[in-house]
Amino acid sequence: MAYFLQQLINGVTLGSMFGLIAIGYTMVYGIIGMVNFAHGDIFMIGGFVAIIAFMALGILGVTWVPMALLCILIIAMAFTALHGWAVERVAYRPLRGSNRLAPLISAIGMSIFLQNYVQLLQGARNKALPPVISGGVQIMETDGFTVQFGYMQMVIVGITIALMAAFTLLIARTSLGRQQRACEQDMKMAWLLGVDVDRTIAMTFVMGAALAAVAGLVWLMYYGVIDFFVGFLAGIKAFTAAVLGGIGSLPGAMLGGILIGLIDTFWAGYFSNEYRDVATFAVLVLVLIFRPNGLLGKPEIEKV
Amino acid sequence: MTAPAAAAPALIQVAPRASLAYMVKDALATGAIALALAIPLVGFRTVDRGATTILETRFTQMFVGVAVIAIGRFVFSLIDAGRARAVLVAALALSIAWPVAAALGAGQEGWRPLAWMTWLLAGSVVLRAAYVAYGDRAALRGDVAPGERLGATVQRLSMYFGPLLFLFAIAMPLLPMADQRWVDLGILVLTYIMLGWGLNVVVGLAGLLDLGYVAFYAVGAYSYAIIAKTFGLNFWEALPIAGALAASFGVLLGFPVLRLRGDYLAIVTLGFGEIVRVVLLNWDELSNGPKGIGGIPRPSFFGMPFTPAPPEGTMSFHQWFSSTFWEIGFSPIQRATYLYYIILILALATNLFTLRIRKLPISRAWEALREDEIACRALGINPTNTKLTAFAIGAMFGGFAGSFFATRQGFISPESFNFIESAIILAIVVLGGMGSQIGVVIASIVLIGGPEWFRDLESYRMLAFGGLMVMIMIWRPQGLLAFREPTIRLKPLPPKSP
């Protein structure tokens, strides 16, 4: 029971991070109908910007943790969002309206490019960060096993909830959100009605990248290490989360993220740690066979 | 959800503004964006010092790089504004002055990427300026786009060039300059050519993006290794089994996913490639885990091994050759040459298969599906089965190539089958021109042979592959050297006799 509870807490923490990444996949897919393979690498860049910001702030002497965290959050979101914008501008915008395969290949090329770009600039080895927030609350203790809800885990879950709330408001209430929903439903019609489609799509990438940056930051703080290849697996898992929740659906991405986090953690905790990636992948294939629209997705009708 | 971006809202074309002030402003804006992008990742560098990580700065390189980008942007807009010839003259003049300046910085470690970037930019500026200054008129004369003409020219040349290349490939190991290094490089390039041709069936003909092709390569390699070691079958006996196994993996994987949209296939194959590696790493009983499988039987020439001293009662190749033809001693290059011809035959078989199947209805159906799935369905083509065939055939060739890899290396481990390999094979197909057989050959020679010779480029190789994939998709989505002749052409009406 105690073990179960601990796995549950770990799983929800991991799932929050997947959910933050998955939103980027699901929003981009919703609007322009493509899988942004480079999104996992945008997440990785977020982590790298965060670790560099951490050290730069350490040199500058900002040591009060909440203040430093806020600064790093803003820095990481801003720079990573700029990367997301640049990726869209360079690799996807010129391809709007071409066939299906071209943006996919462009995206995978971008992903390879970003991985090697960071590897060349920052080196191939793990980058380690000393723990910033440690400790936690002990929830229960049974025969030698302590269930701990770490402060870091609280921060992660808290940030995720806050961001999700802000994000839902943004989509539902602001004019940008309205424009995004309009583009999602009918891009041509939205354009005819005066929506700046290019700008809306660019903003979608910016928002997705900013959320991925948050995921990168908390990932870095939670695990303490980051390397240039981390976006690959995390990207696949987050994409699986988006598909599981129903691609194109925002609450679905969050739900899928939590579920994938739980599956991943429980599989590793109860069955085998070596095959935890296989479990996620099996979920992806099973969802695609039995429920390709995901849990909360709308059925997709292909129009000629 | 809508059918995305079917009609891109790029209806309004902004007229190019040629004023100098606009160009300067544009270049400055580009420089500002580049600077903002460069500050965190280029400006700072994380360095491991023992257990801790420290931060170093390299602002000088960053500013120089950003300046190069801004100047490049300015020069490009100058070219587009009709000052191509002036730019060309200036660039050539600079290229004489440049080596002096470059010699100051290029020697130092941290400056080398910047030096490469500058060379690349300078090269593309010259190309673009030359093209705009002297190429445009030619493009105006012909009714085809210049890129299309390049593809057509290559296609036409390949009529003559192809057989020459073929003869060269056959004669290569027998040429006097062919030493061990040449033959090994030939084997490597041919392996990638074969993989490229195999993947070309999937990506080029059927239009299915397979990001985990290396998984089938791995299945083929491990199948051969296990079959040959457990049952004692020789290479040619084990080859069909390995191919069949790889193909059935292709069917197993493709069946659930091929019903769905192409993007799902891409990400599932990406995951599958990783899963195969993870399983091979962890399933010790089957694959011996990360230690890999060693002692894989090397191929023998009709039962005659390539060893200096064969076991009692058998004859090794050089002994047989000496007794039949003329006296030769043992040399490891004999085995390499034999392997070279094996992979040459396998690759040519792949090519022949593809060339022939393109004339069959099944391949027509692949190409039709690639262009318009809904229309195909309306015409009564079963999309899932048709795609599945392409996927299985591609997987089979991957399996063949994997078997060859295993027998050539004599040792395989999961580390040989990572995502980078898939990416390289995909880059070969994409950059060579999807669906173009000769394009794959040229791309393999350039992309595989090139870095083998210029080791300095090795670390930039994947960076360049990724960047090139993006650029090719933007400029020529059908591939650099692709040129599609219509497969069927209606015969012109016979002239009416009076």
Summed up:
In chain A, α2 (39-60) runs parallel beside α4 (101-122), α6 packs across α8 (197-223) and α10 (250-271) crosses α11 (276-290).
Plain-language structure description:
The complex is a heterodimer of chains A (304) and B (498). The model of chain A has no long low-confidence stretch (mean pLDDT 87). By secondary structure, chain A is mainly alpha-helical. Chain A is globular. In chain A, helix 1 packs antiparallel against helix 8 (197-223), helix 1 packs antiparallel against helix 10 and helix 2 packs antiparallel against helix 3. Chain A is 73% helix and 6% strand. Chain A has a single domain (2-290), classed as ABC transporter involved in vitamin B12 uptake, BtuC (Orthogonal Bundle), CATH 1.10.3470. Chain A has helices at 2-32, 39-60, 65-92, 101-122, 151-173, 175-185, 187-192, 197-223, 230-245, 250-271, 276-290; strands at 127-128, 136-142, 145-150, 225-226. A two-stranded antiparallel ribbon of chain A has the order 1-4. In chain A, strands 2-3 form a two-stranded antiparallel sheet. Chain B has two domains: 20-141, no CATH class; 155-306 and 316-475, ABC transporter involved in vitamin B12 uptake, BtuC, CATH 1.10.3470. By secondary structure, chain B is mainly alpha-helical. In chain B, a hairpin with a 2-residue loop joins strand 1 (44-49) and strand 2 (52-57). Chain B starts with 19 loop residues before the first helix and ends in a 23-residue tail after the last helix. Chain B has a two-stranded antiparallel sheet with strand order 1-2. Chain B has helices at residues 20-43, 59-80, 84-106, 112-141, 146-171, 180-205, 213-231, 235-257, 262-282, 284-287, 317-324, 332-357, 361-371, 373-378, 383-409, 419-432, 437-453, 461-475, and strands at residues 44-49, 52-57. Chain B has 18 helices and two strands. The chains are: A mainly alpha (304), B mainly alpha (498). The interface between A and B is large, with 89 and 72 residues.
